[in-house]
Amino acid sequence: MTSKKLPEWVPTAGHQLHLTGIHFDAIRLRGIRGEAVLQHLATLTEGEPGPVVREVAGARWTYFLIPPGASEGYDWPPGVKCFGPATRDEWVGIPAPDGNTYPLSWRCGAPEEDEFVDPELLHGLVLAQLAPAAGEESG
């Protein structure tokens, strides 16, 4: 079991759905795109990117949890789903830090209280990942 001071919205067993925009906002990316952004984020933060939830079944979504309300300060590009206060009745599954939480898991460990992904850094990485490769000619 972890010795971290967990946020009250992290369950002790299994997983629970939480309404976004209250305890956190979530930025969702699909499959390999989410993994690529997470890899860059982890590199830039020395392996401490903040809370990131991964769904290992279906579309293999990656959810980056940012401070509540922070998603409104950014224009998220197509292909990115923003779950925040501007959306209505949007829920995200949150796994426990340990045990059977299938199909959800923490990618870099469960968060400590008041720990979030840096929304500005995340936004920059998402935009860079979606931008055309440097030197690539159009048309």
Automatic annotation (TrEMBL):
Domain of life of the organism encoding this protein? Bacteria
What is the name listed in the Swiss-Prot or TrEMBL entry for this protein? Uncharacterized protein
Annotated organism of origin:
Streptomyces durocortorensis
